[in-house]
């Protein structure tokens, strides 16, 4: 008498078959996105891009604006993405100095040093540098911001890093990242639906940039900013690798101190401020023991800046400069209303102290 197939054996076969097809589907999807990213090439890494890029304040765009800025300015704003909305026209209004916002998303002290060196190499008649600082500028484990590594003019000044040029393995791996896939899809969408497309970020020729898409959503009442910030705050420590931030990077201190040496050697006015936090984030960080490192960064930066005769302003608390909790795009990025208040506060205090 023939034995019937056991349900147990049949169940095992079905489960393994399901996971086999799941694996195949995942690999095919991965390959599809990799091919899409290579063809679209949204960051112009592979030289194969067929579409104009979506404007999201990329490094090469900012560098191109800088090189075309004529006449060159007497002031520079230097920072990371938190400095995007600092308006050069406000600087000119208060100081009379033509200004360019030379901030880069993800910038750390190596980028600060490099962009100042570039400006000096290009013989800009600089008089003043306004520098926005945040803790991540001195993080010991965060890598060099990856997009700068594809730009020789910036990366060649990363003198304390042994290797910043991306390897073929890294270039291959980037084909399958979520961020690049998102930008590829946005680029395709833009070129297919050009009439309906609106840039997520608008950047002026003086380097000033705002998140236009979020501004439109805020004005239309379609973005619940308070809920979005509340949702993001608990994830902030992981997003900035706060739990790995147990000391200030010696390498990034070298870049920072070389940056200040460049300022001193060229007799520049140095105005440095510690970027503000949304009040809810500031309150949350009071409960995170690892956040004590932020105070260490403030103390270090203040000491180095005042030592060379520069001005330092710790404006993490928005009450310091008359800021608004509604003047943020998220828990750390300021909208123009807060950014303008920051510029006016630091420059007017600097002018009064100078007098």
Annotation keywords:
two-stranded antiparallel ribbon; 355 residues; five-stranded parallel beta sheet; 8% strand; alpha/beta
Please characterize this protein's 3D structure.
- With 355 residues, the protein is of the alpha/beta class.
- It has a domain at 71-142 and 198-354: SGNH hydrolase (Rossmann fold), CATH 3.40.50.1110.
- It contains 14 helices and 7 strands.
- It has helices at 7-40, 59-68, 88-95, 109-121, 152-155, 168-174, 178-192, 212-220, 225-232, 236-239, 250-265, 279-285, 292-307, 336-354; strands spanning 75-78, 99-101, 128-133, 202-203, 209-210, 269-274, 311-314.
- The strands form 2 sheets. The protein has a 5-stranded parallel β-sheet, sandwiched between helices.
- Helix 1 crosses helix 7 (178-192).
- The longest helix has 34 residues, at 7-40.
- The chain is globular, with a radius of gyration of 24 Å.
- The termini are far apart.
- Mean pLDDT is 88; it is low at 6-11.
**Shape, principal axes of CA atoms:** globular
Taken as a percent bin, the fraction of beta residues is 5-15%
Structural class per helix/strand content? alpha/beta
> Can you tell me the residue ranges where pLDDT is under 50 for at least 5 consecutive residues?
6-11
Strand order of the largest sheet: 2-1-3-6-7
Radius of gyration, rounded? 24 Å
CATH architectural name of the domain at 71-142 and 198-354: 3-Layer(aba) Sandwich
Give the helices and strands, then pairings:
Layout: H1 7-40, H2 59-68, E1 75-78, H3 88-95, E2 99-101, H4 109-121, E3 128-133, H5 152-155, H6 168-174, H7 178-192, E4 202-203, E5 209-210, H8 212-220, H9 225-232, H10 236-239, H11 250-265, E6 269-274, H12 279-285, H13 292-307, E7 311-314, H14 336-354
Helix pairs in contact: 1-7, 3-14, 4-11
